[in-house]
Amino acid sequence: MPSSSTPAGTVLVLGGRGRFGLAAVQAFARDGWRVLAQMRPGAQMPTVAGEVQWLAQPVNSPQAIAELAAQVRQAGGASVVVHALNPNRYTRPAWEREAGPLLHSGVSVAQALGATLMLPGNVYNFGQHMPAVLLEGAPHRPTTAMGRIRTDMEAGLEAATQRGDVRAVIVRAGNFYGQCQGTWLDRAMLTGIRRGKLVFPGPMDAATPWAYLPDLAQTFVALARVRHDLPAFESLHFSGHTLTGHDWVDALQPLAREQGWLRENEALRVGGMPWPLMRALATVMPTLDALVALRYLWNQPHRLDNHRLRERIGSEPHTPWPLALRHTLQSLALLPAQTRTALARPVGA
Fold it and tell me: Shortest CA distance to 104 belongs to which of 142, 74, 68, 61?
């Protein structure tokens, strides 16, 4: 259990309009933090409840970073920086070219502000031969280009903390879902749900971790409040929901019947991903190349053990799976607008 809790202060969210970035903006604002949210110039400013100031400032050069840090200091400073920046495209060349420099920008901003840097991580680092239970502190043995990039990024961040440049917290999580588009759900799995079909990318009995974004973002808030109790570099695991394909069918089938996508006694149909076709097209479509390389994540059962995270914050914020799924379908406009409800504060927050 945490030994102390720091009062809410000011947080800077880099990439505040992105999938995780916007969830972090909302969670910190809901918790009473003053939020400074960076976005690229010309981007549309989202509407968010709470005290949020949007900063339209790039972070693609030392001068731009210095200007952003100056803006934040002028606004009163920030004690926490959430790094939610990602390359513009999900391809190996884009990640090789952009991911490292973007993290360096985040470190530079946090260092200039004397702030703790917080970074969402993923499971790519563990590689194709990862164990079924991923413990905090487990060795990183990446087997893909994306995994090596992430491993190098985290090693560089740890080295920066050892030099005393910055303090940092990594929170590793599974597939994102909830409150966002551009995920496996809306791009693949739920594309045929109104016709009574689920697309599932792997074996139906392989359990894999999923991160409901409001819960993950609330975890960042909880860790930010106890950051002074953490070591200079901390890497933790967010368990989220560990789900099989059967779990998806069991939860989606009654919702599909409720919405009239299935008749009362009709079963949800399940289809697989066209992996052979994707592999054939990967030579000319870089995004497919990156996705095919990570196919093993659907085939290899695994879950994230959060023992040390629970020691730090007491309990992991956790919205029950059926409720999280319903909220996700509402955010994707797959449930009628009149039945949408405001997202509940994550259970355990």
Answer: 61
Single-letter residue type at 116: T
Dist CA 149 CA 137 (whole Å):
18
Name the DSSP class of 338: G
pLDDT tops 50 at residue 290 = yes
Cα–Cα distances (Å) from 58 to 6, 62, 110, 134, 191, in that order, read 30, 10, 15, 36, 34
Q: Measure the CA angle with vertex 303, ends 29 and 251; round to 5°.
A: 75
Q: In 3D, which of 314, 335, 139 has the Cα closest to residue 254?
A: 335
In this structure, is the dihedral angle defined by the CA atoms of residues 43, 45, 46 and 52, taken in order, positive or negative?
positive
Residues sharing a CB contact under 8 Å with residue 211, sequence separation 6 or more, in sequence order: 173, 174, 175, 176, 177, 238, 240, 241
Who's near 228: CB < 8 A, 6+ residues apart?
4, 6
CB 348 within 8 A of CB 316: yes
Distance CA 251, CA 321 (A): 8
Residue the block writes with tokens 């164990």: 131
**In what helix (H) or strand (E) does residue 160 lie, and over which residues does it extend?**
helix 145-162
- Region of poorest pLDDT, from 2-11, 46-55, 318-327: 2-11
Greater model confidence, 141 or 343: 141
CA separation (Å) from 10 to 33, 34, 113, 168, 179?
A: 6, 5, 11, 16, 23
- Please answer whether residues 206 and 175 qualify as being in contact, where contact means their C-beta atoms are separated by less than 8 angstroms: no
Rounded Cα–Cα distance for residues 12 and 39 (Å): 11
